[in-house]
Amino acid sequence: MATIRDVANLARVSVSTVSLVLRQPHRVSPETRERVEKAVEELQYQLNGIARDLRVRKTDTIAILLHNLSGPFYSELIRGVEEAGDALGFTTLAAGCSKNHDQGSLRLLKEGRVDGAIVLDPTISSPVLLRYARKTLPIVVLDRGLSGELQSDFITAVGSDHESGGYLAGQHLLAQGYRRFALIAGPVNSEHSHLREMGFFRALQEGAVDVTTIPVIHSDFTEQGGIRAMNMLLDHEWTAEAVFSANDEMAIGALQVLEERHFAIPKDVAVMGFDDIRLARYVTPPLSTIRQPMYELGVAAMKQLHRAMEGKTRIPGEMLPVKLVPRASTQSRITKAGDESDVS
Amino acid sequence: MATIRDVANLARVSVSTVSLVLRQPHRVSPETRERVEKAVEELQYQLNGIARDLRVRKTDTIAILLHNLSGPFYSELIRGVEEAGDALGFTTLAAGCSKNHDQGSLRLLKEGRVDGAIVLDPTISSPVLLRYARKTLPIVVLDRGLSGELQSDFITAVGSDHESGGYLAGQHLLAQGYRRFALIAGPVNSEHSHLREMGFFRALQEGAVDVTTIPVIHSDFTEQGGIRAMNMLLDHEWTAEAVFSANDEMAIGALQVLEERHFAIPKDVAVMGFDDIRLARYVTPPLSTIRQPMYELGVAAMKQLHRAMEGKTRIPGEMLPVKLVPRASTQSRITKAGDESDVS
DNA sequence: AAGAAGCGTCGAAACGTTTCGATTCATAGG
DNA sequence: CCTATGAATCGAAACGTTTCGACGCTTCTT
Q: Are A199 and A211 in contact, with CB atoms under 8 Å apart?
């Protein structure tokens, strides 16, 4: 690879002049400029970005750290970050997390290869984040509790309002006339699941439902987990009319079990999920759920990051509202069928 | 940020000694080593990866370039690359492509920020790839024709066998007893679509079907496009018993149209897709399709890249086999219903 | 006509590492 | 006792840029 020095030699100017031509062309005379440009062309010179980054001490690059790159769930969010970052002049890198944190995405943070990061991966612990966050590398965490644990001038938070989501779900089911519930929760240590559950119960209590009798099964947010949980619920003094699952994946598992065991949905049992993954609209019956504004979350995260990178320091956490998406799986027995209004 | 020099000063040794402690600890005496380690700890020293990359002229990082990061379609593939790369000691970065190629992912290649790349984005033109590929930056293109256009010592190709996929689809439909077909193809300039179509026709011809009468509509690989295409087919002297769509997205669109217009599937019309996206299994009826080995493609790509990075030069292209995934949407009228064997 | 101002160009330092060869010192071999 | 060997450490150069201050020229101002 040709270096700037090669270009300088060929064009018979100094290295600094070549750099000037590249960065601030107006500052060099037309003749010299042309000579340099010709040399650049002839040598197929390409700037070495690494050398530049070293010299100017920034990379114009940010990273998104994901649990695994493969989850379709975050795709909209990533798109939000990308587009917003793009508009601001940043290159966005996504990196999954290898088992080996040292060569995985954390290397980007640790070794200062990016100017900022957005962290989605819940397996990256807060202490680790606290260690790496610094003035020159602010971090936005997505969807972690804006709790006390992460106090740092260089860490800010964006998330959606899980509690309200749960509340909306509860309200909706009540409005549809259901009075007896079961719950498929996420892992016991999942704050999201917990918040959704809290909101759900809050709604039910407002509706004068006795929440103490509601069976709760904790599972793992996967379709398989939903299947297991639903089976357990059904096998254990089943009386519910509606089941609320802390995410769509598990709800879809539950749907399968119910169908297999010949329950009519929503006639015998209503099912409600959370997240509004793409699949939700396509399963039979289409799954009612709570929609997280993934794209907007991405944009919000990028904006916060940008402000932090500009040096702003006490940026308040941001909580974005979620939205009820009613579909056939929770259609009331009261309401006439056929008024599903879900435009694709 | 503390630099290696700060550490050296604090530990009262030279910079080179600190570097030795970090890279080849056995070469320095236990006492010094300990002093240095203490200094590192005290200063919270973190290596500056950029400086290092500059010095050693490599980054141990590769990039995957995607059309947009958000497509769930490639997730398995990415996982394949990641895991394989991980095992080899590389950090994998994924980057979508911004409108502005200069600050988007191509910057990674152009400015030498990675040691290799895997390109999935069909919108990155071959000339561009030819320009950036070099000894120090080999590129693996995925799923482009292994055609003549991309002759370079530093570009290799991996893809799946689209033609055979089309052939399998045709064979399957014939075996199920269908004799009259319609085709929803991809964009006219899509080589994939073209190959799938060729294979499909080859099978039909072997089955003595007159392929010249088969209506073909070109669309854009999206669900909406599938809807439009299916409507056009139906509105135009419809006689087919089975429709083959060049990908699942369009097939799913077609499914919706058929249902809306009260065709029974597969009784009145069979539908077959291509790709086996996650959704395929969940739509009603479940969609028969051709499965591309996405994960394996990723692994194969990473392996090729690795060999290229080691200097190997004329690596032959690799074409991975695809697999028929029969589901209910093409169930024969002859076969008894109920023998669907699709274990999740 | 003398000084100021501006333009175009350049040399050198700096960014933070790694690594090569040199230097010092202690120990072993003869 | 002298030299060869090896270990521990170091200084300096190099990686490829950007940028600051300086220098020489021309042109303008008064």
A: no
- Domain co-membership, A151 together with A172: no
Quick check: B20 CB within 7 A of strand D? yes
Q: A207 with A234: CB under 8 angstroms? A: no
Nucleotide nearest to A29 (CA to C1'): C8
What does the pLDDT look like over A176-192, one tens digit per residue?
Answer: 999 999 999 999 988 89
Is B80's pLDDT higher than 50?
yes
Residue A131: how many CB atoms within 10 A of its CB?
14
In a domain, residue B83? The reply is: yes
H helices of chain A, in order, are 4-11, 15-23, 30-43, 49-56, 75-88, 106-110, 126-132, 162-175, 191-206, 223-234, 248-260, 294-309
- Residue A298 and residue A156 share a domain: yes
pLDDT: is B294 or A173 the higher one? A173
Looking at the fold, whether B172 and B268 belong to one and the same domain comes out as: yes
Q: What is the pTM of this model?
A: 0.88
3-state secondary structure of A302: helix
Q: How many domains does chain A have?
A: 3
pLDDT per residue as tens digits for the range B166-199? 999 999 999 999 999 999 999 998 889 999 999 9
Same-domain pairing of B280 and B300: no
**Cα–Cα separations (whole angstroms), residue A234 to A138, A230, A238, A243, B131:** 48, 6, 5, 11, 62
* Structure confidence at residue A337 (pLDDT): 47
CA-to-C1' span, B11 to D1 (A): 38
Kindly determine whether residue B98 and residue A104, on different chains, have CB atoms separated by under 8 Å: no
What three-state secondary structure class fits A70? coil
**Are B97 and B124 members of one domain?**
yes
Chain D: positions less than 7 Å from a protein CB are: 7-21
Asked if A331 and A287 count as a contact pair (C-beta separation under 8 A), the reply is no
Q: Which of B91, B284, B329 to mutate to test the interface with A (most CBs of A within 10 A)?
A: B91
Identify the CA nearest to A298 among candidates A318, A312, A316: A318
Is residue A332 in some structural domain? no
Q: Report helix angle A294-309 to A75-88, nearest 10.
A: 40
Q: What is the CATH number of the domain that holds A234?
A: 3.40.50.2300
**Smallest Cα–C1' distance to nucleotide C14: which residue has it?**
A55
Does residue B137 sit within a domain? yes
Residue B113 dihedral angles phi and psi, to the nearest 5°: -85, -5
The answer on B70 and B19 residing in a single domain is no
Whether residues A189 and A287 share a domain: the answer is: yes
Instruction: Give the pLDDT confidence score for residue A339 in this predicted structure.
Output: 47
Identify the pLDDT of residue B103: 64
**Can you tell me the distance from the alpha carbon of A282 to that of B174, in angstroms, rounded to the nearest whole number?**
28
Domain of residue A267 covers: 163-291
User: pLDDT for B105-123, tens place per residue?
Assistant: 888 999 999 999 999 888 8
The answer to whether A106 and A124 are in contact (CB under 8 A) is: yes
Same domain, B308 and B287: no
Integer Cα distance of B140 and B64 in angstroms: 9
* Cα B11 from Cα B87, distance rounded (Å): 35
- Residue A224, amino acid: Q
> Is A70's CB within 8 Å of B54's CB?
no
Q: For residue B285, give the chain A residue with the closest CA.
A: A284
Question: Which nucleotides of chain C are near protein (any atom < 7 Å from a CB)?
Answer: 7-21
Say if B341 falls within a structural domain: no
